[in-house]
Amino acid sequence: MLRTHCKQGHEYTKQNIYIRPEGYRDCRICKSNSVLKWGKNNPKQNRLRKRKYYLENKEKQDKSVREWLKSNPGRKRQYNSKRRALKKNAVGIWDYIIPRQLFIYQDGKCFYCGMPLVENGKFYYQEEHMLPLSRGGKHDYRNICLSCKPCNLRKGMKTSEEFIKETQESL
Description:
Blueprint: E1 17-19, E2 25-27, H1 28-41, H2 43-56, H3 58-71, H4 73-87, H5 98-105, E3 118-119, E4 122-123, E5 126-129, E6 144-147, H6 149-155, H7 160-170
Antiparallel strand pairs: 1-2, 3-4, 5-6
């Protein structure tokens, strides 16, 4: 008689059963856990195994990455911001949901010039560090606002106060 549960107590279902070529049944949850454990215990072999798989399936992997990036633009932006902050050693609290909250807080307008950040249903904004990372600012929700691209490019490495003062003087 066939067992209905694995040794760890997971129920065999269509979704979590793996049948090996020899005909033996394995629980996908237990199999996944054992693969993860093996990877942690054998980092060099795991890296080589992943590299070999990537080289053998390069087009498939690249296609998968492109699809993920297309469906997760906020996550890509978050990743790039965090990476840049890590390079500058300016880590803080950040989440991909925060730009949406800032957008609502700023009424959908640029922090500096007040122009709408939405055009024809598309969002056009850049996450702007009010105190630049290069001048000791943190990559933190308290140091970030949303601005339009022209304002962000004109601001450069100035602080918000310096940029606003300069903008008011030029008017």
